[in-house]
Specification:
Number of domains: 1
Number of strands: 8
Largest sheet: 8 strands, mixed
CATH superfamily: Vaccinia Virus protein VP39
Distance between the termini: 59 Å
Number of helices: 7
CATH class: Alpha Beta
CATH architecture: 3-Layer(aba) Sandwich
């Protein structure tokens, strides 16, 4: 082994890797099936495709993150949705289409206010949310321009409880933890929080959110991985499995 490998930076990174491996062994996310959260035969509206940024339509085509999200939303018909990470507003628009009675609060930092490393788009205020506005859903949406590190949802929600929360902003571990804990106090008793780009492989951009979910489990939050997707799921009370007959 070269002496150059014992630099302080290398040693810190090695320590972080060892800690992640320990977390993954000790707090690995258990699996939940989509059928446990929404009826399998739930039909969703035809997707709006402009600026869609979710597999299988974007980046990766070997799995589907879009359909499970829309099935969950369509089946549950949430009254209040909070989405952290608007981007161009495609997910917002599709949520509006599938949940016509929902009020959606969606949050995105303009590019000049963005921080963090694992991000997808740097957009201006005009670009943020352009899809849902073009499709006529602006009246259903409250657009919040903010870095989630500095976000206070209370003035926007004004006492309303959140039925569906979506964490899909910056995927750095500290940001995902921040976003979860910003949403959690406002969640309805039967509400659900979904955390995107979360996968046990921890490959590339999937690392930060999965490590955040491991740390949430370490904190006592029963976060689970939605099989065959890049979604993690948390709800305040998981149903108790029925006893075998």
């Amino acid at each position: 082994m070269k002496w150059s490998s014992f630099t302080p930076a290398n040693l810190r990174e090695k320590s972080r890797q060892l800690h992640r491996r320990w977390l993954a062994r000790r707090y690995a996310l258990p699996v939940v099936e989509l059928a446990d959260l929404a009826p399998p035969d739930t039909a969703i509206a035809p997707p709006i495709l402009e600026h869609i940024c979710m597999p299988p339509h974007y980046y990766r085509h070997d799995h589907d993150d879009f359909t499970p999200l829309m099935k969950l939303a369509r089946a549950r018909q949430p009254k209040v949705i909070v989405e952290l990470g608007t981007a161009h507003g495609n997910t917002t628009a599709n949520l509006c289409r599938n949940c016509p009675a929902a009020r959606i609060y969606t949050v995105n930092a303009p590019v000049e206010e963005m921080t963090g490393a694992i991000t997808t788009f740097g957009l201006s205020r005009e670009e943020i949310g352009c899809v849902y506005r073009q499709h006529g859903y602006a009246a259903q949406v409250n657009q919040i321009y903010a870095n989630t590190l500095h976000l206070d949802l209370a003035p926007h929600l004004a006492g309303q409880k959140v039925d569906l929360g979506i964490v899909d902003a910056c995927h750095d571990t500290d940001y995902v933890l921040n976003d979860f804990h910003k949403l959690r106090p406002h969640l309805a008793a039967q509400g659900l929080i979904l955390l995107h780009d979360t996968h046990p492989s921890m490959d590339d951009h999937l690392l930060g959110s999965y490590v955040a979910c491991l740390k949430l489990r370490q904190q006592g939050f029963d976060v689970r991985w939605l099989r065959h997707t890049w979604w993690a799921v948390w709800q305040p009370q998981w149903p108790v499995p029925a006893a075998p007959a």
